[in-house]
């Protein structure tokens, strides 16, 4: 699951497009300052997009970003299939493009389904369970040695049965430890892919999944709100933030 979550984050075109739009918006808002030429940002910043509001006190920066991407995605779909939009005016066509694109954006949560599942995992607890299994196997070895010291031939069948169990258990634990190491390494690489050197500051290995999961919940809510926005406002808002196709 965690491996699939990493692959989803690194390969999702829509997720990367959204990050690009957020970065461009941030640089535009901070033009002329030392923050206006950023080439990356921590994913935690995604959760703050709804804190930046317009003059109406309701529309947030995330609304603008969603509108912009929706318009570009819808226009792209229209280019591929012009017959998908059958409206008489440019205004209505523009609105339909936004609606088509919004459907694509709103499916990001489905596209990153394994990320949401991975966010619910407690890797610290999993690691502690694996370590505990290793310790318990050690205790079984001690019991076996104690049994051998008190019983010779009479305890042979018991000895053989336990030895068979230990071999299987130790093999399974080694496999779990190898998988755990591989997954943690992959999660670390994914975090570094998005955060760069700042990844070293992360206390929780799976925190990147938690952040994205929380953002997807906010994004889903914003997409529903954008769908209800007045038609005129939909077109005006979308045109204020051009995003490269």
UniProtKB/TrEMBL annotation:
GO aspect biological process, one term: actin nucleation
Subcellular location per the Swiss-Prot or TrEMBL entry: Membrane
Chain ranges of the FH2 domain: 1-245
Top-level taxon of origin: Eukaryota
Keywords: Signal
Major subcellular location class: membrane
UniProt keyword Signal present: yes
Cellular component GO terms, alphabetical: membrane
Matches recorded under InterPro entries: FH2_Formin, FH2_Formin_sf, Formin-like_plant
An annotated Gene Ontology molecular function: actin filament binding
Topology term for the membrane: Single-pass membrane protein
PANTHER family hit by this protein: FORMIN-RELATED (PTHR23213), HISTONE H3-K79 METHYLTRANSFERASE (PTHR23213:SF368)
Family in the record: Belongs to the formin-like family. Class-I subfamily.
Name the UniProt record assigns to this protein: FH2 domain-containing protein
